[in-house]
Amino acid sequence: MVWALMVKSWRDRWRGVLVWTVGLVAMVGIELWVYPSIRESSAGMDELMQSYPEAFREFFRMSDFTSEIGFLNVEVFSLVVPLVFIAVGASWGANATADEEERGTADLLLTLPIARSRVLLAKMAATVIVLLGLAAALTATLVVGGLPIDLGIPVGQLAAASLSSALLGVLYAAVGFLVGAATGHRGIALGATIALALAGYLVYSLAPLVDAFDGINPINPFQWAMGPDPLTNGLDLGFTLRLVATAGILLAITPLIFRRRDIRSA
User: Fold this and answer.
1) What is the per-residue burial (b if ≥16 Cβ within 10 Å, else e) of 64-97?
2) How confident is the model over 37-56, as a mean pLDDT?
3) What is the pTM of this model?
4) Contact indicator for 59, 205 with CB cutoff of 8 Å
5) Burial zone of 212 (CB within 10 Å; 0-12 exposed, 13-18 middle, 19+ buried)
6) Structural domain boundaries of the chain?
């Protein structure tokens, strides 16, 4: 039954997953296509980067823009890719139970001979697999697209950066699951998750410039995922475990809250 619910989740939302996957692959492919021209004009680009205000360069982590790793960190992994994973995760998490309630199908779903916790488990597993699949597609695009331009970044480091972004998406998906299960409102769950993600990104980006964020950034999921620079250093075990553990705790709490609610379909 759990597997059947996972398959139903994928079948109901396969078009959205396909659009996100194609969009992500196309975006990364375009960036890889552009990079050789950046590399060929590295002297001029470095001079241009130095002309930008220091605050601007700190915000976007633009210390080494013309190298392969520096370019991908700025153009791919600093903002666009993490937000894609967060958007997918937040959407799936917020829709997991709240969408069923708002569409009036929750009563039917929960009358099946399966516990509410198993229903949530199936939807959680389906979400995690989708995000990991996106990470695999991203890694494959970087590896294959990097061959013609001699990208020169080891596959393990590309996979580490992709996986870190996927785990960030899993964590915010867990937030969506929790808020959706607690409120029964898809809009509230999605809005709260995106708001928390944007706040986390701003704190991470502004931390080099704002001393007041020094005490917040160590508990910021963006710092855990992006701070160790996995594209350069590979996965940081400690920060990766923080992402996994935090997501796991949120996902473990969600069924407890969901079981206590009186579910009434609209």
Assistant:
1) ebbbbbbbbbbbbbbeebbbbbbbbbbbbbbbbb
2) 66
3) 0.87
4) yes
5) exposed
6) 2-260
